Hints:
Layout: H1 2-25, E1 28-33, H2 38-52, E2 57-62, H3 69-80, E3 87-89, H4 93-100, H5 108-113, H6 116-119, H7 122-125, E4 129-130, E5 133-134, E6 136-138, E7 140-143, E8 146-149, H8 151-157, H9 165-177, E9 181-183, H10 189-214, H11 218-221, H12 224-237, H13 249-258, E10 261-265, H14 269-276, E11 286-289, E12 297-300, E13 303-306, H15 312-325, H16 328-338, E14 341-342, H17 354-368, E15 372-374, H18 384-399, H19 405-415
Parallel strand pairs: 1-2, 1-3, 9-10, 12-15
Antiparallel strand pairs: 3-13, 4-5, 6-13, 7-12, 7-14, 8-10, 8-11
Helix pairs in contact: 2-14, 2-16, 8-9, 10-12, 10-18, 12-19, 18-19
The chain binds beta-D-glucopyranose (BGC).
Amino acid sequence: MEKTTxxxxxxxxxxxxxxxxxxxxxGEVEVLHWWTSGGEAKAASALxxxxxxxxxxxxxxxxxxxxxxxxxxxxxSRVVSGNAPAAAQIKGPSLQEWAAExxxxxxxxxxxxxxxxxxxxxxxxxxxxxxGSYIAAPVNVHxxxxxxxxxxxxxxxxxxxxxxxxxxxxxxxxxxxxGIIPVAHGGQPWQDFTTFESVALGVGGTDxxxxxxxxxxxxxxxxxxxxxxxETFRKVKGYTDKNAAGRDWNLxxxxxxxxxxxxxxxxxxxxxxxxxAGKVPGKDFTCAAAPGTAKAFTFNVxxxxxxxxxxxxNVKAQKDLAAAIMSTDFQEVFNLNKGSIPVRLNxxxxxxxxxxxxxxxxxxxxxxxxxxxxxxxxxxxxPSAAAGxxxxxVSQFWNSDKMSVAEAKAKIASAAMAK
Length: 419
Ligand code: BGC
């Protein structure tokens, strides 16, 4: 008895000691993100839980607004005032722009210990590095060129899920006749641009997409193919509803979920909404490549850039976050909720649905056939100044039915030169 008590006391003291040691190490990580819709918030809670499981404190810095334009504006003002968060959702070439300002932390020690170079596709690893050192941790691969549809309303309208743009307009017409809004769309420039890039890829093909939107080649931007792209894009607008202005993307997805609208052109964060609403892929909703783009893949990788911090415990917490983000457990639970696929290679996808499996297969196949292209609308392709200017020009065209295709083409070509 006496022996047990002493043992119990020693054990308690050890546990207490460990806890105190743990607490001494515990830090706080303030995380800026824009994941506020149903599916996004679920995915964000997985990130929060992962950090908390390491004994650290999560300080939420959510700035609502799909696509992250508002979040980036807020981030700039916080960094300028010397009050950067520990981690921020920053993507693509913008990572390089932030790193060049000298505000990002080098997390090579974490990346080396966790062997990031061997578990990440090179196309992703390169973007996470500045001058050869890791400055950000990637969480996923979103595919942007998707078309989401409600099979029940398609059936009611006697329409089929389109695979080409010609078929798209036939189906849209049938849905309209059946009294259903054919295309669910929201009214924000990034949503217009998301549709635009899928039209550009489908109508113009991969080479056109790369030359026009990635290399920003003036000749291609001013080509006859661009006329066709803009005409098709305008035609899509004719099948959206009058109340689209200002609507958030997830409310547009909700229209498809409820059967008020037939389809939506959106990245697979939309799948996160269907799943959060308890809908079953293949039954309650379908995922198909945007018309004419089945053999291509527009990628959008979410990542967290790590800012330089002074407090040692917070630096430790930040590094723990970076390591956790790349762990197989996190990559699974996060992406099951987010609608994306793990960015980490060779993961077991047993728990993932057919949309994710198709995405994963197409990601690998398109990388081999050079038809894996960066999403311009989601900040993967060109510096932020040009991307922002092109987005504005595309949106002006979408919103003003009076602007001619020739005028829009000239505007987009000149926007592409923005520095
Ligand atoms: C991000 C996604 C996000 C979507 C809508 C995209 O730019 O990459 O993570 O869900 O915007 O907010």
